[in-house]
Amino acid sequence: MSTNAVKKKSGGMKFDPNWIYLILCGAIVYWFVTTKDAMPTEKQIDWSDFQRYTRENVFSRMTVNLKENLVLAEVKPAHQKAVFGDTVPPIRTNAWGETEKPSVKTILPSADRFSDFYDKTKERYDIDATVKYEEGGNFWLNLLNGFLPILFFVFLWVWVMRKMGGGGAGGIFGVGNSRAQIYDKGTANKKTTFKDVAGLSEAKQEVEEIVDFLKTPQKYTALGAKIPTGALLVGPPGTGKTLLAKAVAGEAEVPFFSLSGSDFVEMFVGVGASRVRDLFAKAKAKAPCIVFIDEIDAVGRARSRNMAMGGNDERENTLNQLLTEMDGFGTNSGVIILAATNRADILDKALLRAGRFDRQINVDLPELNDRKEIFVVHLNDIKIDETVDTEFLARQTPGFSGADIANVCNEAALIAARGGKTLVGRDDFMNAVDRIVAGLEKKSKITTLEERQAIALHEAGHATLSWMLEYANPLVKVTIVSRGKSLGAAWYMPEERQITTYQQLQDEMCATLGGRAAEELTLGKISTGATNDLEKVTKQAYAMVAYYGMSERLPNLNYYDSSGQDWGTFTKPYSDETATLIDEEVKRIVNEQYLRAKEILA
Question: Is residue 229 within 8 Å of residue 356, measured between CB atoms?
Fold first, then answer.
């Protein structure tokens, strides 16, 4: 049984070494407090006053410290007010259990002179004070007084260094240890399996092959095949990259190391490279195994793009060590690296070459059938009625990631519970989609009658053109109740397609401009309500000219750099004359579709 399993079964209170430091600090603080409280019981006086008090028989006992050349004398209760005034210190017990009575202390000219003074005073005056001579103070007391402050700061420094080192083994010397979470064989997270990953059939198939490589490597090596060194999961946020890795941890019967790219980055120089070495040393010791690095772009950013001129040397050192370790594996060593990122364009090219990450697995946004499967998975835990149709919900959520769909299901359940329902219905899901896409309804927003009329005409223009145009998206519903920052909204059921023609783009732009066209035709004036529409149309027209080559005067030209090599440059990939042509073409395309929208509405 592994250590993790033992800890899970015990369920008791775990011993924390930090309690030792806490107890020691408490003892030191207690010592300082008791020592501080004991100080007021002693009053410093000069030698002449001490002689006068001695002749008046004020003291009951005198202790002479020959080493420090001073005398400590206890004052009789009858004379305490005369010596201390109105502030007579109380009798206290120190940290050693000794009783301390109100006393005075004075520095002696010399031990011989005190002896002469005491003998002469005792002959002439009636005094009964006893005298005790000591060679020095308490040895252990003096030792503690001298070393306790030093010990306090030593323990404080060690405690701070342990915290800065992440609390790992070795304290300050363990700051370079890997922070990876290890799911060993038999103790991996069984809550997530490939059955829990809906959709992503192609990506799931490639990840399943990686698990099969490790389970039965002889099936591949017998044919002379080499097990891949690493696989990079690339895709937008929320598409299920980390979920796939969790499924690998649940399915693979091999040790699984999981950590984030930011775990390598530290303020200390050389710590990142040390953690990389420690991670791969542990992985080689447990081979065959899988190492998963989430958000690898935190450490794998291209080395040629450090705009801070040397400000990222530590990150570069960590990346160099990672490149060395990944390339240093022997053939079929049994260690496979899984990594996830949504910024593959900024990763260093040396990290992506064959032999390091042999495969790039694209985890894209789910298609219609994938969204249906995702809805089925998330609806298993929600009580729904017969009106809920996964086909309809999947069509209403184009462009939604798996995380977005999970949010829709949870938001629908919250809306139903808020309304006092026992089952979640179709309307609740539609309200959840509206809530996520457009924002919360603002029924209390005050609008004038003229504003409401303009909003209604604007949305009616969108709705009319969406029905009249062949390639425009069909309308689902329209509202003039404000949501989020918009005063009105229209929902469509877009057709999912992989390529878009020039005519389809024209119809979409025309339908988008229908709102402003309707305002101008019916009211004879335009408003600021079309700001988002104009922004969308302008960007779409610019993409048609500069990226898609759909311009009459600039046909078949593309100025988009998909490789990302021009990142951070200050020059445009075209001349000023071409920039002028692009602007003119964008204006022409937008104006043509606006005139077309007005003609259809008229």
Answer: yes
* Distance from C-alpha of 172 to C-alpha of 268, rounded to nearest angstrom: 12
pTM assigned to the model: 0.62
Tell me the pLDDT of the chain averaged across its residues. 79
Domain ranges of the chain: 23-137, 181-303+312-362, 368-438, 493-601
Architecture of the domain delimited by 368-438: Orthogonal Bundle (1.10)
Question: Which pLDDT does position 310 carry in this prediction?
Answer: 47
**Structure tokens belonging to residue 69:** 């050349």
Q: Which has the minimum average pLDDT: 162-176, 431-445, 470-484, 534-548? A: 162-176
Coil vs helix vs strand at 477: strand
Hey, what CATH topology would domain 181-303+312-362 get? Rossmann fold (3.40.50)
The SS3 call for residue 316 is helix
**Over the stretch 4-38, which tens digit does the pLDDT of each residue have?**
443 444 444 455 556 666 676 666 666 655 554 44
Tokens 């017990």 locate to: 93
**Distance in angstroms (rounded) separating the CA atoms of residues 412 and 435:** 10
Check if CATH label 3.30.720.210 holds for domain 23-137.
yes
Query: 301: closest CA among 274, 325, 324, 319?
Result: 319
Fold of 493-601: Methane Monooxygenase Hydroxylase; Chain G, domain 1 (1.20.58)
Burial class (CB in 10 A: 0-12, 13-18, 19+), 499: exposed
Which residues participate in catalysis according to the annotation?
Answer: 459
